[in-house]
Specification:
Length: 879
């Protein structure tokens, strides 16, 4: 098969991007990669189309080349295509390099045994150093872009196989002082230097002459894979993140060895050379470079971090967030060895003032606050990992960072977090002067949040913010009773004002520690049981009581439930009441609960509620405390020591639930039968096991069809033929569609199950209906009248219909017999088809030839013309 056209490729790429998984599961998946590689060499496709194909291979390499062998073949073909390009400038060279690199890296084919790897690596290195590869391979106008692309490709391969470029460090270092792309080369050299230092240190070896050797990339010798094979290929990610600096201590300690004077001098020179040119890089690239070099030199004896000092002078006042992040990463890595106390004070003041700038966007504001909350101090007093405010960051300096109700919610929470850390340090002291203490300000802020959340009809966002702030305070100040006591009373007052916030209280109790959870449960329980049982917020009180009820205050809780039982008339209130009874059962409450369950078993209106109350009463009467707690626990698996009533209870619950099950039914579409005024789809069901009370529900995609009714079958048994099921269709437009099928049935064990069946497809021919038969002898006039009525509002067309070996007569008798109005076999047939809801399709099949017949057609609905053409062209293949 020849190359595909641009339109076909556009259609295939659109279908692939719409759903890659669905496309790869279809019939065209196997040919996609092969066609893509083959058509890249076709002269019939434009370069723009080929670039689109290469872009697909860059975005979805795992789908196109799923294993190492496929990736190897793809990379080899891409390199061959690259070599065959004419010497003139082309937009394909850079995408081809990127695609070959991506195929090897993504497919796991990169290695010493890969032929494509052995071809690609010298090629990339030669392009990166600007060597003459001969035959006009690199036009002068493309040399610099290709050099940058080659550096990016090598950096990607070095990331996948650390140590891959260890033998080329000297060659890459020598390029920094020459003309060429500075940023790609600097990032490549810094990554290769970092990886080589780590791997050589693990092996107990030094750098040797790696930084001074000038290895020719096209010398013809094999590529050196020694460092790659000695390393395990698992180095720390390249994303700058200063908290990771502490976690990576074990890996960094591998570099804690002393190099000989010559190695140390060359290493300092290489690092200084990279740092001196770093100002030419973009902010993001500068941050990446600083992090890589700082991570590589951390703990390396004989390499003082003072090499970074000139960069700090330039970067301490930067407004670029990425560079500020890199500075903090260096501070976390080197601490007081690089940053003096004055530097630390200046940096803290810089972050504090920047976080108060009124014109900052929210994301930038949150960044500076996060830097303050995670500030890496030179000499932290607390243990490693303990959350604390920086020592030099006092309330006076943070006066402009105090939270206010006017701030955005995220900014308020970040400022509140900082305030809580200040309160943890200022536990006993108060600021002298006019400023209130942090603890006093915190109490006022929480009181304002509670007051806003308690407003009747207030937005849910205010309540959510209030509980987020309460959780933050409880987490940071869990050990301070002076803060927790007013917090508990404030939350109790909030519940008293708005019981509808009970779900928020339940969520808070699930996440806070025991220091707040236990006293808050007591206070909330007292708030609930002190209310009358007929309160209009009874549903919220029951939800709250189900969470806070325990063995304490049994009499007050039971009195509240007995008073509330008379007002629980709806199903949801009865279920809430039973949930409280369940919680009391798990807490070991007996006594009065027995009487309450007996009353509920008799008086509840809902039969489900009465059954549950009766079950709880039986469990309470027959099981001891430990077994009762296990029986009512969240697990459905009954332990060995439990009573047989537990298993019966589980069976009872399972029988009441509709369970998802594997498909025990096969459903297919039978032959099309023309019956009645509507098209009918004939369904053929088949059961793999006996099923009963089967209900098939159908959902039509889109709005082309009216909703379909369910089909019911009393019983289906395997091996026993079932009568066909008829599903009437009600199309609003004559078009094919897809039906999603959902089955609900009962098994022989009494369980009710549901399952999603494979979709069914309604074809265009399934909608065909005949016109009423005209009187004998009037068929031609009837057809001509219909033919003339289609114009001028309708449409007319001609289609070539291929004929198989059966000829025209066999084709008509097989597919169009019910719709023939006038027949002159075997050469001429007039066909009239009614398309619901109110369209018509007329066909003239005349002058048949050996391989096909011309078909003249008219319709009063022009939108069906493409469907008719596809249908007629596919008739011969459908035999």
């Amino acid at each position: 098969m020849g190359p595909l056209s641009r339109e076909v490729w556009a259609q295939r790429l659109g279908a692939f991007r719409a759903s890659p998984s669905a496309f790869m599961a279809g019939p065209e998946a196997e040919d996609l990669g092969r066609d893509l590689l083959g058509d890249l060499r076709s002269e019939k496709l434009s370069e723009q189309t080929k670039v689109s194909l290469l872009a697909l291979s860059l975005e979805y390499p795992a789908q196109l080349w799923p294993d190492a062998s496929a990736a190897e073949v793809a990379a080899t073909s891409l390199l061959d295509t690259l070599v065959l390009l004419p010497p003139r400038p082309s937009a394909l060279r850079r995408p081809l390099l990127l695609a070959a690199t991506t195929a090897l890296a993504g497919g796991g084919a990169l290695g010493p045994t890969s032929g494509a790897s052995c071809r690609l690596l010298p090629l990339l290195l030669g392009l990166a150093v600007g060597s003459d590869l001969g035959r006009g391979f690199v036009p002068a106008s493309e040399q610099r872009p290709l050099q940058a692309t080659a550096c990016e490709c090598l950096r990607e391969l070095e990331s996948c196989k650390p140590g891959l470029l260890g033998g080329s460090l000297g060659l890459l270092r020598g390029l920094l002082g020459q003309e060429g792309p500075v940023q790609p080369l600097s990032l490549l050299l810094s990554l290769a230097l970092r990886n080589t230092l780590v791997l050589q240190s693990r092996a107990g070896a030094g750098l040797g002459a790696l930084l001074t050797a000038r290895v020719s990339p096209t010398g013809g010798g094999p590529w050196d894979w020694t460092l790659v094979e000695e390393g395990d290929g698992h180095l720390q990610p390249q994303a700058p993140s200063w908290p990771v600096a502490e976690e990576g201590e074990g890996e960094c300690s591998l570099t804690a060895r002393e190099h000989n004077p010559e190695e140390a001098r060359e290493l300092r020179a290489a690092v200084a050379q990279l740092l001196d040119t770093s100002y030419l890089l973009t902010p993001v690239a500068q941050a990446q470079l600083l992090w890589l070099l700082g991570w590589a030199l951390r703990g390396l004896q004989g390499q003082p971090p003072a090499l970074f000092k000139p960069q700090l002078v330039r970067l301490l006042g930067t407004a670029q967030l990425t560079l500020m992040h890199a500075v903090l990463a260096l501070k976390a890595a080197f601490g007081e060895a690089l940053f003096t106390a004055q530097d630390e004070t200046l940096l803290l003041r810089r972050l504090t003032l920047a976080a108060q700038h009124p014109a900052l966007p929210l994301s930038t504001h949150l960044f500076y606050l996060h830097c303050l909350l995670s500030f890496p101090e030179n000499c932290p007093l607390g243990p490693v990992g303990e959350e604390a405010a920086p020592l030099l960051l006092g309330p006076q300096l943070c006066r402009g960072l105090l939270p206010s109700l006017l701030h955005e919610p995220m900014a308020l929470l970040a400022r509140l977090h900082l305030l809580c850390l200040l309160c943890a340090e200022d536990e006993e002291e108060e600021e002298k002067g006019q400023l209130p203490s942090p603890g006093h300000y915190l109490e006022e802020l929480l009181a304002s949040l509670w007051q806003r959340a308690a407003l009747e009809g207030g937005p849910r966002a205010l309540a959510t913010l209030c509980f987020q702030a309460s959780y933050l305070v409880a987490r940071c100040l869990a050990g301070q009773p002076t803060v927790l006591t007013p917090l508990i009373h404030g939350l109790a007052q909030l519940y008293r004002a708005r019981p509808m916030l009970a779900p928020h209280f339940v969520d808070l109790l699930d996440h806070v520690g025991p220091e707040l959870r236990e006293p808050l449960k007591v206070v909330l329980r007292q708030e609930v049981v002190s209310r009358p049982g007929r309160d209009e917020a009874l549903c919220w009180h029951l939800q709250m009581l189900a969470r806070v009820a325990d063995g304490d205050a049994q009499s007050a809780t039971l009195n509240f439930l007995q008073a509330a039982a008379a007002h629980c008339t709806s199903w949801d209130l009865q279920q809430g009441l039973l949930q409280v009874c369940r919680a009391l059962l798990r807490a070991g409450v007996g006594g009065g609960l027995v009487d309450l369950l007996q009353v509920l078993a008799r008086q509840l209106e809902d039969p489900d509620g009465r059954d549950h109350a009766r079950l709880y009463y039986i469990l309470l009467a027959h099981l001891a405390g430990p077994k009762l707690g296990v029986a009512l626990g969240p697990s459905l698996a009954a332990p060995a020591l439990a009573s047989s009533l537990v298993a019966e209870n589980q069976g009872f619950v399972a029988a009441l639930m509709v369970q998802e099950a594997p498909a025990l039914i096969r459903l297919s579409v039978g032959s099309h039968e023309v019956k009645g005024p509507l098209p009918v789809l004939q369904l053929l069901p088949e059961a793999l096991e006996p099923i009963y009370s089967l209900e098939l529900r159908f959902r039509v995609e889109g709005q082309l069809y009216a909703p379909l009714g369910a089909v019911h079958v009393p019983c289906l048994c395997p091996g026993r033929p079932a009568r066909p099921l008829l599903l009437p269709l009600q199309p609003r437009r004559p078009a094919p569609t897809r039906l999603d099928v959902h089955a609900l049935y009962t098994t022989s064990t009494g369980l009710t199950c549901h399952v999603h069946l494979p979709p069914l497809f309604v074809n265009f021919a399934d909608l065909f209906l005949p016109f009423p038969q005209p009187p004998e002898g009037a068929g031609l006039g009837f057809f001509e009248e219909l033919w003339d009525s289609c114009l001028p509002e309708g449409a007319e067309s001609r289609v070539w219909c291929p004929l198989g070996p059966q000829g025209l007569e066999g084709l008509v008798s097989r597919h169009l017999e019910p719709f023939v109005v006038v027949a002159q076999p075997p050469t001429s047939y007039y066909v009239a088809i009614h398309l619901p809801p109110d369209s018509k399709l007329l066909l003239r099949l005349e002058a048949a030839q050996a391989d096909g017949v011309p078909v003249a057609l008219r319709t009063d609905d022009w939108a069906v013309l493409p469907l008719v053409g596809d249908y007629l062209r596919g008739l011969a293949a459908a035999i």
